[in-house]
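Q: Here's a chain of 182 amino acids. Please give me its 3D structure as tokens.
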Amino acid sequence: MPSSDPITIPKVLKLVTTLKPYSILDIGCGNGRYGMLFREVFDLNYGRMDKDRWQITIDAVEVEETYITPVHKYVYDHVIIGDWLNTNVGSYDIVFMGDVLEHFTNWKYALSKARQSGDVVIVVAPNWQGSINQGAWFGNEYEAHQVELTPSMVGGKCVYANSKCFITVFGEGLINHRDILL
């Protein structure tokens, strides 16, 4: 099951809760970590446990069907199985790309498509030389890193970076305020 460095969790949650979205698309949802966290902070923490009471739409796109568990089926409103580059979606307040952009050979197109689908796009990616060496995990070729990214390559507004990862945001609104910097 895919995963990522948990250091970004509080930073991503601060961004997302500050933006107060009504809809989120989680591209490459993997183990469903962020879907669960988004659902928790926007609905479950307010006692809205039943899907018919939820106030935020959280959808996902995942290329690997075997990753989908009962957790995904509960926390996401819809999970689209397929390659992001060949998937049609509507528009969202936030498109979240958590540790997924580096898996695309054509990462610029993947990012461009995300920007067309979201008012705000949040990208979390590895920020260390050698991340390109990650090959297939458990025989899954989609897990291989195809490109070594840097904040300057990706663009947008880099709101967090360390020697392991970075977070870049595209879009207008609250992300322009100084207090959002992590």
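Q: Can you summarize the key feature?
A: The two ends are 28 Å apart (CA to CA).
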